[in-house]
Amino acid sequence: MWATGETTTSPNMAFSEGYEGILVQFKVKRGTIEKLENIGIASGNHPDILELHATLKKDISPWNEKYARFKLEKGQVNIALGKGEALKIFNDNILEFRFVKEIKN
User: Fold this and answer.
1) What is the average pLDDT across 28-44?
2) Is residue 51 part of a domain?
3) Number of folded domains in the chain?
4) I need a labelling partner for 101 at 20 to 30 A (CA). Which of 1, 16, 20, 84 fits?
5) Share of the chain above pLDDT 90, in %
């Protein structure tokens, strides 16, 4: 996957359908989230994120070259991959993917 301004994963497809762009579903290797947690930061140092993902570092800026950014949005945690190490980890762990649809708002 290529980096964009909003290269973010979501556990909920319905949430992602609210954004313009290409919607793709990925299947990744077991343990991928844990690898991202190892280089992860909690967006805004949000206590709910830190409770769910206790090993995350505090929010750092700029983050997009070295870190995965775990962000609480509408009650769920999405993972922003940036354009560096987190994106590489994600790409290296993709088992399969499928195009779902293009969304134009």
Assistant:
1) 97
2) yes
3) 1
4) 84
5) 75
